[in-house]
Amino acid sequence: MLKEYVVLPTYHEAENLRLLLPRLKRYSVIVVDDDSRDGTKDVCRKHPNVRLFVRKKKSGLSSAVLYGIKMIREKDAKIVVMDADMQHDPEKLPEFFRKLDKSGFVYGSRHARDFSVSRRFYSWLAATLAKTMIPHTKGIDDVMSGYFGFRLKAVDIQKIKPKGYKIMLDVLVNLRPGTKTDKVYFVFGKRIHGRSKLGPAVIFSFLSQLLSLSQYRLVYFSAVGISGIVVNEGAAYLLHPFLPLWADFLIAIELSILSNFLLNHYITFRRRVRFLRALPRYNLVALVGLSVNLGVAIALSYLIFYLTADLIGIIAAFGFNYTLSERFAWAK
Ligand code: GDD
Ligand code: MN
């Protein structure tokens, strides 16, 4: 039988480990602790199925999890990663491991959340960003979960360079092609002892993790957009003597769409799909994006200063173009 592993990152969780470890007796448990001086070592020592690794300084949740995973030698181990603070219900572990017989990746999906409205909004925003920027999250209904499991051979562990603290996203991006995924529902519990280790720096760290996991496509896409303005203006200037203004603008717009397409196809999206598939789709996206720009700007101009309205229109069109480029024009 395959060995079943539970990886627990911990930082000052001795009180919680006292409750959790007795419920994990059937598993091989790996605790990766960042030198907590709260008795974590003593609690772990009481359990022969627990291996404790201590790192000398606090270096983050994701890297702790990765460290623990790398300590596992079995090639096809089943591994579940969970928080040690009892917010992840250990009663769900058998279901995770059962589902890992058939699927290479299983995530815990939180439901019945009793979060505040603001927390729910931020969580929705973060999930939407992740879903837009990282196509691997397609079909995953809780991309921010920290409770998940996988088969070791289903993931290219060597490729993971953990940034930020959403280690599940790193694992998802590095799943081997064709891996089946499944989910387990659970209720995200309340922390009983201690407090959350994730402070305000998390927003920045999350955004930089998304950029890095998406290979900086948003940055390239923005740069290409700016180059498009130059092409548009340049073409309009060069053709101006020969054409009526409306035709001049029209051609300038289309030329900038084409040059944006080429740059995005080869640089931003690295030929993710065939040229002839992406070309008409991107063209459509860009033209509709133009009407988004115009529509928003005109509608808002009745309410606010017209240049501000235009700026908001531009931003809306940019968001629209980028989202549909990821999810439609270059979607696999
Ligand atoms: N070794 C180590 N090093 N462990 C850490 C570190 C660290 O720097 N930071 C946090 N941990 C451990 C904690 O001790 C706990 O066991 C687990 O990682 C989760 O940390 P919490 O501080 O409880 O995080 P949270 O509850 O705010 O966030 C959780 O829920 C989020 C969803 O709302 C995590 O699971 C997140 O990954 C998840 O996105
Ligand atoms: Mn927690």
Features:
Spore Coat Polysaccharide Biosynthesis Protein SpsA, Chain A, binds guanosine-5'-diphosphate-alpha-D-mannose, alpha/beta, 50% helix, seven-stranded mixed β-sheet, 332 residues, binds manganese (II) ion, single chain
Can you describe this structure?
The chain has 332 residues and is an alpha/beta fold. The protein contains eleven helices and seven strands. Strands 3-2-1-4-6-5-7 form a seven-stranded mixed sheet, sandwiched between helices. Helix 8 (217-239) packs antiparallel against helix 9, helix 9 crosses helix 10 and helix 10 (275-301) runs antiparallel to helix 11 (306-329). It is elongated, with a radius of gyration of 24 Å. The two termini are 37 Å apart. Bound molecules: guanosine-5'-diphosphate-alpha-D-mannose (GDD) and manganese (II) ion.
